[in-house]
């Protein structure tokens, strides 16, 4: 230690600073590669971290897009990221070069995680009921069972799924994502992801019960049984991905990704129906004509219900619940809109910029079911309808989600009329961001028809 005198300290500090700048420069050298997408100048070591508001990334991206164009770049600490905006660039990246943009970036933090009063007509918030209804669909698929609405473990599971979502966008997890070396501090990951840990512990319990009641001689009752059959077949093959660890991750993923997304979309649907009673009446009229009151809706009814289909699509477009998608990573050098994006670059897909693309939609920021209807009132698909993302890595639950949205929505409107509670102000149709974009909390009244 005696070596560190005042005389040696100065040159040492300069050498260290030069070394750190060189390391930083190496991470940033992409910026000077020909045709790399433009972006704001990053600071040494920090990148653009301090120039972004992580609570409102979408507005930041909108501002940066108007300055730098549809394809621009950022440096998040040491990670280079390219942000894709608008229909044309998104199609080029996710659809035309689907194979090369379908990777997910590694997230070191996760590797350390091992993974009411609603009497008739009275105002209530529909969120908890929607979560339970949608939760039981996933429970039927994964565990071949449904839960009673007052089941203690089921309530905990749903609570934790919602908590987990908020947890991920919290301060500590953001710090851990930005500075992955911190994951080695004992206890920090557990603290940052407490809900996620508790969620997985519950899933483990349910998987164990499924395993105990399973009869291998019988056909599989659910996804867990089918997976366990495959685990047995793959015994002794270390290459196989059918193992116990992956079973808990698959079930956790399905529960987490499958419940909050669909129930949030249904919460948007009910909100938009109480805000637009004329639209609600037209949907009910179509239900009465095509289905009637004597039987339940079926998927086959979709073909005869263009207005309802348009409304469900417009709810998803307007709700825009995953505005920035999930991160992708290029597995090869690619070109988008004339810019070169090297292999291994993170891509953020600004789905919101497509769902609300002003060059595509007549009224991008208004709820307008006619976006999906032609002049004759027939349902029309729109290429810029991308709430599930696009290309090879798009949502694997899309077919199930579409079924749930249509069947729950039509069943609810077949039986009930929904309205803003008497004497209450009109709820806002602005979303709030907390992992997903959810409607601002609201109450409604449901009156049997
Ligand atoms: C309205 C409902 C839903 C919406 C809007 C939605 C949207 C999305 C989006 C935008 C992604 C990211 C795709 C990408 O990276 O390009 C995604 C991924 C995913 N979704 Fe959905 N989703 C919904 C429902 C569901 C359901 C019901 C399930 C499960 C049954 C599910 C399971 C998943 C899974 C497991 C992934 C990750 C797939 C992967 O990493 O390859 N989602 N979803």
UniProtKB/TrEMBL annotation:
PANTHER family: CYTOCHROME P450 2D6-RELATED, CYTOCHROME P450 508A4-RELATED. The chain crosses the membrane at residues 6-26, 254-275. The gene is LOC101390433. Its cofactor is heme. Keywords: Heme, Iron, Membrane, Metal-binding, Monooxygenase, Oxidoreductase, Transmembrane, Transmembrane helix. Gene3D superfamilies: Cytochrome P450. The lineage of its organism: Eukaryota, Metazoa, Chordata, Craniata, Vertebrata. It is found in: Membrane. Belongs to the cytochrome P450 family. It comes from the Eukaryota. This is Cytochrome P450 2D14-like. Pfam families: p450 (PF00067).
């Amino acid at each position: 230690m005696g070596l560190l005198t005042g005389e040696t300290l100065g040159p040492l500090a300069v050498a260290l600073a030069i070394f750190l700048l060189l390391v930083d420069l190496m991470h940033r050298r992409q910026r000077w590669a020909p045709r790399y997408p433009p972006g704001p100048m990053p600071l040494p070591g920090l990148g653009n971290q301090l120039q972004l508001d992580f609570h409102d990334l979408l507005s930041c991206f909108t501002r940066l897009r108007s300055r730098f164009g549809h394809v621009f770049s950022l440096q998040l600490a040491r990670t280079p990221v390219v942000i894709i905006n608008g229909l044309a660039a998104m199609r080029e990246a996710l659809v035309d070069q689907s194979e090369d943009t379908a990777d997910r970036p590694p997230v070191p933090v996760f590797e350390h995680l091992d993974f009411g009063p609603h009497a008739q007509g009275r105002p209530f918030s529909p969120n908890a009921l929607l979560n339970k209804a949608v939760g039981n669909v996933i429970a039927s698929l994964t565990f071949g069972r449904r839960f009673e609405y007052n089941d203690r473990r089921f309530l905990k599971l749903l609570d934790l799924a919602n908590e987990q979502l908020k947890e991920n966008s919290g301060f500590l997890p953001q710090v851990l994502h930005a500075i992955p070396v911190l994951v080695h501090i004992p206890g920090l990951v557990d603290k940052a992801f407490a809900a996620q840990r508790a969620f997985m512990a519950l899933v483990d319990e349910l998987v164990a019960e499924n395993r105990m009641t399973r009869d291998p001689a019988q056909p599989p009752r659910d996804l867990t049984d089918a997976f366990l059959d495959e685990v047995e077949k793959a015994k002794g093959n270390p290459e196989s991905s059918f193992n116990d660890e992956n079973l808990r991750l698959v079930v956790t993923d399905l529960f987490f990704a499958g419940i909050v997304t669909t129930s949030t979309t249904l919460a948007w649907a009910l909100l938009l129906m109480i805000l637009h009673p004329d639209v609600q009446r037209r949907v009910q009229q179509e239900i009465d004509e095509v289905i009637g009151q004597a039987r339940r809706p079926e998927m086959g009814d979709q073909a005869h219900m263009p207005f309802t289909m348009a409304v469900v699509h417009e709810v998803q477009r307007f709700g825009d619940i995953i505005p920035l998608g999930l991160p992708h990573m290029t597995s090869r050098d690619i070109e988008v809109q004339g810019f070169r994006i090297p292999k291994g670059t993170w891509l953020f897909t600004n789905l919101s910029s497509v769902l609300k693309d002003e060059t595509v939609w007549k009224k991008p920021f208004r709820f307008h079911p006619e976006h999906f209807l032609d002049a004759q009132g027939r349902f029309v698909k729109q290429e810029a309808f991308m709430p599930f993302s696009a290309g090879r890595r798009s949502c694997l639950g899309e077919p199930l989600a579409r079924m749930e949205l249509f069947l729950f929505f039509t069943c609810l409107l077949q039986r009930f009329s929904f309205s803003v509670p008497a004497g209450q102000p009109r709820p806002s149709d602005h979303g709030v961001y907390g992992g997903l974009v959810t409607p601002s909390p609201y109450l409604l009244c449901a009156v049997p028809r």
